[in-house]
C-alpha cells in the first residue's frame, strides 16, 4: 500500500491555490473554483484541495512537508511574504521544524527528519 494523495477542504480554492503554488507545489489539475491537485516537488505524492461551504470544526488538519534544509526553505518563503507561527525549532522527537497556517487555517509544518522520519531510535519492530 502507498499513500497517493491527501485532500483538504477550502472555502476559497483559488486563494488556497495561490498559497500552495507559492510554497512550491506544482499544479497538475485545475478545476477551479471547486478542485485543484498538485504534485510535490520531490517524491511522488500529490495533494489536492476541494471546495466546501464550511470548514470542519476542531483541531483540523496538519500537513507535514519535508525539506532538506529547513532554514533555507523558511527564509525563501518569508521572502515571498509567507508568515510563520513559530521560529525554527529542534524538537525532542529529532525533527527540525517551523509551523505556519494556510489561507483556511490548516496547520502546516515545514520540517526535516531525515532517517528519523521512518527510523527513530524508539521505533518498534
TrEMBL record:
Pfam families, A to Z: Glyoxalase_2
VOC domain sequence ranges: 2-113
Species classification: Bacteria, Pseudomonadati, Bacteroidota, Flavobacteriia, Flavobacteriales
Originating organism: Winogradskyella litorisediminis
InterPro entries (alphabetical): Glyas_Bleomycin-R_OHBP_Dase, Glyoxalase-like_dom, VOC_core
Database matches in SUPFAM superfamilies: Glyoxalase/Bleomycin resistance protein/Dihydroxybiphenyl dioxygenase
The protein, known as: VOC family protein
Amino acid at each position: 500500500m502507498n499513500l497517493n494523495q491527501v485532500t483538504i477542504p477550502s472555502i476559497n480554492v483559488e486563494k488556497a491555490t495561490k498559497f500552495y503554488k507559492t510554497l512550491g507545489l506544482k499544479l497538475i489539475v485545475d478545476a477551479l473554483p471547486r478542485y485543484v491537485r498538485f504534485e510535490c516537488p520531490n517524491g511522488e505524492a500529490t495533494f489536492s484541495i476541494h471546495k466546501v461551504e464550511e470548514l470542519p470544526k476542531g483541531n483540523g488538519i496538519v500537513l507535514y512537508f519535508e525539506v532538506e534544509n529547513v532554514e533555507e526553505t523558511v527564509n525563501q518563503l518569508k521572502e515571498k511574504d509567507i508568515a510563520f507561527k513559530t521560529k525554527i525549532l529542534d524538537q525532542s522527537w529529532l525533527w527540525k521544524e517551523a509551523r505556519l497556517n494556510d489561507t483556511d487555517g490548516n496547520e502546516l509544518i515545514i520540517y526535516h527528519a531525515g532517517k528519523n522520519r521512518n527510523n527513530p531510535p524508539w521505533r518498534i519492530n
